[in-house]
Predict the structure.
Amino acid sequence: MQILSRAKREATSYDCILPISGGKDSFYQAHVLTKVYNLRPLAVTFSHNWYSETGFYNLQLCLREFQLDHIQFTPSRDLVNRLARQSLFEIGDSCWHCHAGVGSFPLKIAVAFGIKLLIWGESICESSGRATYKDSVNSYEKDYFTRVSAKKSAMQMAETGCASLKELSLFTLPSSQEIDDSGVWGLHLGDYIFWDEERQTEFIKSHYGWRETEMESAYKGFKSAECIMAGVHDYMCYQKRGFSRATLQAAVDVRNGLMTRDEGFALARRIDAEVPHALEYYKKLSGLSQTEFEYEIKKHRSPQLDSSDINPVLKSRSNTEVLEPFVEQILQRMQGATDSRLTAQDEILLNSESWWA
């Protein structure tokens, strides 16, 4: 590919930036860039601070398998919680901080390090009606992620009072002048090579040991496997639009002849309406009650829907993973172990003659 050859020839440090989560797309990107095109990318991660255990494993596996240098930004738990709460009010979604961070942080690193090319994976042309392959793939918009997912800028979020603009500095896009001066631009690999997420997932599973997991609001285990809150994001879509991830997956499978239309509808209806267990964690971190959550999400509902179109059902089966951030699980486990050791040591000291001497 001429673009990659030029980037490698002109690079003074890293050939490109690889925005990476450890998910199926960025893992496959890492394979293509390092093993096929022999590039030296700098891996850059915006962490939503909601990593699942499987997602944490996949990210670390990716860094090891492809020998990647890595920079990661993880916003504080308190900031994430405030933004996730306000995100519901502003865009009817729990994930503004992730939508904004994945767009801004890699760009900021590119400008700071003088690395001109950023390479993402799947384009919205592949799985969305928001763009087509007839659109130019050679032009790059710095506010791409704001336009397609975040919807609100960091400045607009700061104006709500949930966080200061200083706190949101790494969520703020570089200026157009900074982008122009540095020559930074980006592309989606899926605009240039055949993109089949299921085939690519099977490839990275069999060749590298990448892992799927159970995903709420879906019947496939590879999409957003790094995040415990993906099911909440998709369930909010169901509350607003009347469909969720299972409908999107079934539509693809029906088009590909893997199931009938009736089978697809039946599967989607059952899974879309399930209330994800992770919603309890969202209510805990946001401080919202169930009544408050329902009141706010209804404000974003499509006008053609009414209450009769939305029929949530309780999810009966248990989850294979604990739906709390994996780092929180580690902290709780280790702190519990430390407390137990201290208690035992305290007993020894209290019963020791030397303590009382």
User: Anything to note?
Assistant: The chain has a mean pLDDT of 90. Residues 326-350 form the longest helix (25 residues).
